[in-house]
Amino acid sequence: MPLDTSAYSLALLRVDGRRWNELRRIHAQIRTQAAADGSSYLEMGHTKVMCVVTGPSEPGPKRGGMTGGVGGGGGERSSTADVSVSVVIAGFSSVDRKRRGRGDKRTLELQSTISSALAASLHTHLHPNSTIAISLHVLSQDGSLLAALINAATLACIDAGIPMTDYVVACTAGSTSTYAANDEGADPLLDMNHQEEQELPSLTVATLGSSDRVAVLVCESRVQVSRLEGMLAVGVDGCKQVREILDRVVREKGRRMIQEGTIEKGMSLDDMDID
Amino acid sequence: MASLKRSFDSDPLAANISSKVYVRSTKSGKVQKIVREVYLRQDIPCSSKLCKTCLATAPKTASGTPIPPVLSNAPAGTKNFPQGHYIVPDTNAFLTAMDLFEQDSAFYDVIVLQIVLEELRNRSLPLYNRLVSLTKSEDKRFYVFFNEFRLETHIPRLEGETVNDRNDRAVRKAVAWYGEHLARTKVKTIPAVVMLSNDRDNLRKAKAEGIHACSLAEYVKQLKGGERLLDMIPETEDGDVIKEKKPGQLLYPEYFTMSKMMTGVKSGLLHQGTFNVSPYNYLEGSIRVPAFPKALLVLGRENINRAVDGDLVVVEVLPKEQWKEPSTQVIEEETIAKNENPDADEGEDVISEKERKALQEEVKRTQSKTTEGHAQPTARVVGVIKRNWRQYVGHIDQSSVSQSGQQGRKQDSVFVIPMDKKIPKIRLRTRQVAELVGKRILVTIDAWDRGSRHPTGHFIRSLGELETKAAETEALLLEYDVQYRPFPKTVLDCLPKEGHDWKVPASTDDPGWRDRQDLRDLLICSIDPIGCQDIDDALHSRPLPNGNIEAGVHIADVSHFVRPNNAMDTEASIRGTTVYLVDKRIDMLPMLLGTDLCSLKPYVERYAFSVLWELTPDADIVNMRFTKSVIKSREAFSYEQAQLKVDDASQQDDLTKSIRTLMALSRKLKQKRMDAGALSLSSPEVKVQMESETSDPIDVKTKQHLDTMSLVEEFMLLANVSVARKIYEAFPQTALLRRHGAPPKTNFDELANQLRVKKGLELNVESSRALADSLDKCVDEKEPFFNTLIRIMATRCMMAAEYFCSGTQAYPEFRHYGLASEIYTHFTSPIRRYADLVAHRQLAAAIEYEAVHPSVRSRGRLEAVCKNINVRHRNAQLAGRASIAYYVGQALRGKATEEDGFVMKIFSNGFVVLVPRFGIESLIRLRDLAEPEPVASFDAETYTLRTSGSREVAVELFQKVRVRVTDQKDETTGKRGVKMEFIRAY
Ligand SMILES: [Zn+2]
To answer: Start and end of every PIN domain (chain B) (predicted)?
Structure first.
């Protein structure tokens, strides 16, 4: 087994060889499933998730497993689209291979957090009486799961062509010292992997595009208030970097689609611009 | 559908990402596959002061501080590397010879590879911790190079390559890289980069690849004075020494595999526990396991199967026909295995002829018993989960030294007899026998394989001549793991800048005065033993207008000076307690605090933490409060001075009156405790009187008990109980408390039986109250000491009190059995106990004086603190007692006195006598009675030993006897001890 997170102070290197302010490798693809309205695949390190978006569509017969609706109410007519999120965590995605049921509390919480985060950016008022169904699959987990899910959902929504204000981008931030050790010289950390999440305090932050507007802030571990500010600053900065990467992926895909003729010739790249 | 495969090729980063696969098996036996990413980079510095390239890319912390280079620009040279060198040891080098690397004389500028650190951590956590603390020491210059993260030195595992081979290759790769990298600096003399390994294969490959490599022995020989260090390299690693044993000559049964043991323990067929050796019989061990109420016995070498006291072992219960009673014989390794030859291990049976005889007698005696019910379950060790080997202090058994060893520098095998009687003799190979004979030496155990009757170890260092004060004191400190090195600079940096000139700020507007009550006008005084410098506590009392009394206990405000988690706090938490030896004190906190700034010295203002009560004249508490304060003690009394003052009716000043009031209250408090069932226990306490100039002991006196001692004790108990309630109320999960468990009734079985048989007395152990009452009734009209003797013996049946974190126990378990208190903590001695310091912080938070620091409310952290201070506390007590024993021995040196003693324990071949005047106990064996050894008959039912033949004596338990006490040096073992000769029975 490799060293634990306490070895950071020896040479300012994290358990996987990163420095404090480095993201893991992010690999993203959009339109991975041609048949879907929108789809994406995203890796942040070894955390791997897939997303499929259906809609906006007229609410048909109730789909099973879709929960976490924000905006419109169940069967009633509403003025905004209903964003419903489902997260399925594959049993093989984590080391202990534990299967999580439908009603798993943690999964429910993820769903509702993602749903409210996206509702902040999606122009749901343009699609009254309809549903946007976001279905997420977790294939592999290595920390920063919520952040990866939010990023994948954003990409899939863009692919589905749903109007939105800006990217909702997320990443995690942590600190190199535990709560109890309370080392005042602790460095903040960007993008936590699983081992770091287990051993150190961490938070997930999502911002709206490259602005400093925070859409999601989740902190489930104990940490001194004095360290929170530094962690948050690093997290927000990380979100900006993530946005750059996702934006590059979207533009690259757009360019390729034009080349391949998937999109009508008359359309220019600028028409696709969502900035 | 688009491919979801990772597209590494298109990713510019991809070339620098690798992953590692680990396989881990969990406690429940599942196997997990873990895949981890590894990001490879080129900005990991070599950390040599010679290299300018790496200086430019030195990593920085978030606040922008770069890490300075570690390795010297002019490292020391050796015979083979006169240009200077950096050392790169492999994992085995650290595993086998960590002591070498901790030497001051050599082993500087060491590159610790990440892969080595990882492997070491997986193999031995203590060694890993030692290595990490070396890397943090500034003068040793140990640099951790993260070779696995540097692009050039990271290597993937080849197909068919074992993990070990891959890791060895990684070490060689790193050494080669360092060589090339340093060559590029173009400085005049480039230091050599030398790999240290004891793996022949690895050395061979290194030489083939053209990199510098040495075995530990080769390397040490190149050093100046290296001969001396050679002994620290464990012998098994010295290729020539390993002897091929034929299977028929293995002396001990093979251990079970780990998985077999785990399955066995899980199914309840095998049992796991800590192995303890009987202090009277080195061939008898016991192990407490959760499955049974009483300990299982482990008898004889073969069943003990290489377990050493303290090891975590797995045992198997033996068939019923092999069950036995614990031995009634004293068996000491010194006498039975005296003449063994350390070289002649092979071919001998594991049980020597003499041992076999002793065992036969045991069997006979057990079998002669008609009552079968007496036999106790026995077990044999089938495997060791975790060794608890440490460094041992001992001396070379003179009789094991051969003539040739005395003269030449040839390597020779000798036996080392550890000071701790529970540890077996250790076989040591050394080249310096002649120098080491007659010295106290520090050794460690390396291995105990099936073919060797005794464990093998290696020499670490010499503490000095046997019996010299310096050597014996250091031996004691090492044996009880007391941290006695001077405080490091980082700790001293935490002290107030003003040093001894620090004063309570004159202005009450100073932040130091925030929320402090001004108690300077109270008539406060302290009462302590003569010469006490670290004054933790002071008291006062004054009458209140309503007829009640205000009493106050004021404790040094140590938590004001020692802030949580700084270097000083960390050091104190490791030390845990101040250790008091007869002529030496090893402080928990630096002197400046302990004896000056915190100490509640008279006539000066000091910060204090005060507990104030309103008590009725009957000592009932009306109310109480806690406050930080500033006090000014009027006088520092010794117990004796205070006693004289109280007893002198002519003294009618307010201070004396207030002490008298406290005295009256303390008597009532004590009565209340006694009524609640508090125990008054005993241990033989003596005081060594020293010649003031030479500090040589001149006499030994039993401690006198004064009423003023009770006075202080009662108020401290009251303060501790009051604080315990308060912090528990504020922090139900994390209060640091102290409990004393009720002893299991079986602990008293033997004592109760002895009292019934010998004296017709009943010992009632139903409750502490009942026990206290029945102990009171244990009196012998003719012999006033008898009661104390029984109390001493009863104390040994008790459990040890322990610190704990309130969330780990149910409330009824909080009880302090000895004090008969529902809840208890330690608050009154923060200068010398870490537990009290934590209680201070918790109380300060409970009264909202300051915010709760996370370290005092993190349960995991507190549990770790409790675990450590429990051990430290126990060790401090043992070290203190051992120190007294040593000085008592010294005081008796050359004298012979006749004293009265009492028989405390009786065996079939000897008995133990306690001499109250010196607080010493010693064994008198049959063969000490007369020459030739008299024939003896032992009646276990009536605890009587009768001898006939060369001398006729009848000795029974509790009997008062007359003995001659002399000191004696055993020529074969070089050990000085008290010797008692039996004169007559009364
Ligand atoms: Zn360099």
So the answer is: 85-204
